[in-house]
Structures are given as structure tokens and as C-alpha cells.
Amino acid sequence: VTHQEVAANIFDFGVNAGLGTAAKLAQLVVGATPDGKIGAKTLQALNAIDPDLFVARYALAKMARYAQIVTRDRTQGKFLLGWLNRTLKEAA
Fold it and tell me: If pLDDT is split at 50, 70 and 90, which confidence band does 92 have?
């Protein structure tokens, strides 16, 4: 990945959610097939997108994912504010 901001965002989310999940979400953001494996096509798409646009869209996608987690399991709600704050801090 040629843009450090893009790579750092994917890596950071990978630490929290797992590398496959982070890759799939990044693939959805850039319009690649979400298979969880960053190959040549995904790299091409990641390198072609404006880094600021990627960071913003990735943040929105992460927040939507966190909302889905809490919707499925209300006991996870206690983590939601922390997840959202971390996402917004990374996107700033």
C-alpha cells in the first residue's frame, strides 16, 4: 500500500477486528471483491483511491460495523462509545 494513512488504518482495525475483517472492509470501501485477502486487485484499488477519501469512508464503514455488532448483541453496547471515539480519532 503506497499511502501510509491507508495502511495504518487497515492495520489498526486489523488489530481490533482481525486481519480478514479489516481487509474485507477495506475491499468494500474501494469496490474490490470482499474476500479478506489483499491481492493485486485490492492493492491496485487501495493505491488508486485518494487517501483522505479512503480514511473517511473506512471510518464510516467501521462505525456501521460496530453498530451491527451492538444490534446483534446488546451486551457489546458498553464498548460502543470507545470504538466510535477511537475511529473518529483515527479519521481526524
Answer: confident
The cell for 1 is 500500500
Mean pLDDT of the region 26-32: 97
- Provide the 3-class DSSP secondary structure of residue 80: helix
N- to C-terminal Cα distance for the chain?
20
Long-range CB pairs of 31-34, under 8 A, 24+ apart, other chains included? none
Exposure on the CB side of residue 2, measured as CA atoms within 13 A: 11
Q: What is the largest CA-CA distance in the chain?
A: 39
Structure confidence by residue, pLDDT tens digits, 50-69: 999 999 999 999 999 999 99
Closest Cα to residue 76, out of 88, 91, 65?
65
Closest CA to 23 of 61, 71, 56, 52: 61
**pTM value?**
0.91
